[in-house]
Design brief:
single chain, Beta-Lactamase, 11 strands, 30% strand, disordered C terminus
Length: 242
């Protein structure tokens, strides 16, 4: 294959197919999910009838809709099996694509389409953040089964990739490192707050307010916190009564 042919194929992969529907409030949420998951090509929010509510990504819209409808059916059939009671999500590796399917309240589902060579690392926290954002935007009443509470944060780090500050409300809030989180040998199927694995790195930090949080840097460079730091880090430290 000539270099020119290879560059042409690369350019085609980078092209974003034209949307076949207008953007909604869900579009930006799904776009952020695709950007945060290594190897992700598209994401779709699908209802219980298999209709795609909204989507985002670099895949052809028709293909995304077909995949979303198909995996909605697969999730329904799996949930109907007694051996799969309580099923929350499915991951599947196919010949040309891989998929993550996660059940949402009111029989909605989130379908994430990944490239063939993409692994299944780096989607747990991103899906947790996306699911919570979708629920808030849709005002779903039943959030009891929401995934682990992870929050995406913008972190400035030093030359060794250790966190030095967190950007909140347009300002960098310095943090003090209290300790390093040692990753487990093997990560659980769903990443709970405090879990880490592989090449992830985690730190327990303290803000100027005295509030503490755990910051995790995933291999792709995306940072997450195990608490809503915009609430705890912006409060002024309480003064001791004299």
């Amino acid at each position: 294959m000539s270099p020119r042919t290879g560059s042409a194929r690369t350019a085609r992969r980078r092209l974003r197919p034209a949307r076949d529907q207008g953007e909604s409030a869900f579009t930006a949420i799904l776009r952020a999910l695709v950007a945060r998951v290594p190897g992700a090509r598209a994401a779709a929010l699908v209802d219980f009838l298999g209709e795609t509510v909204d989507y985002s990504g670099r895949a052809i819209p028709f293909d995304v809709r077909v995949a979303a409808a198909h995996w909605r059916i697969v999730l329904d059939e799996a949930e109907g099996q007694s051996s799969f009671q309580g099923l929350k999500w499915i991951v599947a590796r196919a010949a040309r694509r891989s998929y993550v399917v996660y059940g949402l309240p009111e029989r909605y589902a989130l379908v994430l389409v990944l490239a063939r060579a993409a692994g299944f690392a780096g989607w747990h926290r991103a899906v947790a953040v996306c699911a919570r954002a979708l629920g808030q935007e849709a005002a779903w009443r039943d959030q009891a089964d929401a995934p682990a509470q992870w929050f995406h944060v913008e972190v400035a780090s030093d030359a060794h990739h250790r966190p030095s500050s967190v950007r909140l409300s347009g300002a960098d809030r310095p943090v003090e490192i209290l300790g390093t989180i040692v990753h487990q040998e093997r990560m659980a199927p769903w990443a709970e707050p405090g879990d880490s694995a592989g090449r992830e790195r985690g730190w327990r930090v303290r803000f100027e307010t005295g509030a503490e949080a755990t910051l995790v840097r995933e291999p792709g460079g995306t940072w997450y916190a195990d608490a809503a730091v915009d609430g705890i880090a912006l409060d002024r430290p309480s003064r001791k009564s004299r």
